[in-house]
Amino acid sequence: MQPGDIDAMTQTPEPQIAIVTGASRGLGFALAEALAPRFHVVAVGRTTGGLEDLDDRIKARGGSATLAPMDITKADAMAQLCRSIHDRWGGAALWVHTAVHAAPLAPASHMAPKDFDKSVSTNVSAMGHLVPYMAALLGTEGQALFFDDPHAGERFYGHYGSTKAAQIALARSWAAETVKTGPDVKVLTPRPMNTTTRMRFHPGEDKDALATPYAEAARLLAEAGLD
C-alpha cells in the first residue's frame, strides 16, 4: 500500500445532490426532508423562514442542506446557482420541482392581469430555463420529478389550471425525449393534501380528510423508486 492510498481510503465520499425547487413549504418541504438522509439537499424557495425551518429539521435527522432563497423565475440567479452546484459537486442526481404559483380562483373573464402574468411566469416560463439548466446537471444518469395537479378546463381555474397543465405538458415532452438517453423524467400525481395551496382553493374543506404532505412525500418517493 502506498502512502496516498490511506488518504484515499479515509476521504469522505462526495454526497449525492438533490435539488428541490419549491422547498420552503408544503409538498416540497416534506420531500426535501424525506430525501435528506440519502442526499445533500439544495433547497430552493422564496421564503427564507421556511427554508431555515427545513434546515433545522434536516439537521435534526442527521442530514445536510444548502439553502438557496431565490425566485425560480430569475434566469440569471438560477444559472448562477446551477453553475455553483456544478463547480462544487460536478452535477446533481435528482431534481424535484414543486414550485408553483396558485392565483386566486376567478372567472376567466375576471382574471387579474398581474395574477395571470405571475402564473405564466412561475408555472410555465421558468421551465424554459430550468429544464436546460437542470438537464446539464443531471446528465444521463440523473432523475427529475414533476407533480401533476389536473384542473385544466375546470370552472374558475383559468390561472392555475391552464398554466399547470402547460408545465406538465412540457415535462411529459422531456420525459418522452429522454426515455433512451436519460435523465429519467417522471410525472407523478399527488393525492389532495392539507397544504396552503389547497386551502386557498377550498377554504372550507375538511382538513382531516386530506393526506398530509409527509405521507404523500413517502408515497411518491416510493413510486419513483427513491424510498
From TrEMBL:
Keywords: Oxidoreductase. Pfam families: adh_short. One of its GO terms (cellular component) is membrane. InterPro entries: NAD(P)-bd_dom_sf (IPR036291), SDR_fam (IPR002347). The keyword Oxidoreductase applies. Gene3D superfamilies: NAD(P)-binding Rossmann-like Domain. GO terms for molecular function: oxidoreductase activity. The keyword Ligase does not apply. It comes from the Bacteria. Belongs to the short-chain dehydrogenases/reductases (SDR) family. PANTHER family: DEHYDROGENASE/REDUCTASE SDR FAMILY MEMBER 7B (PTHR44196), SHORT CHAIN DEHYDROGENASE (PTHR44196:SF4). This is Oxidoreductase. It comes from Salipiger pallidus.
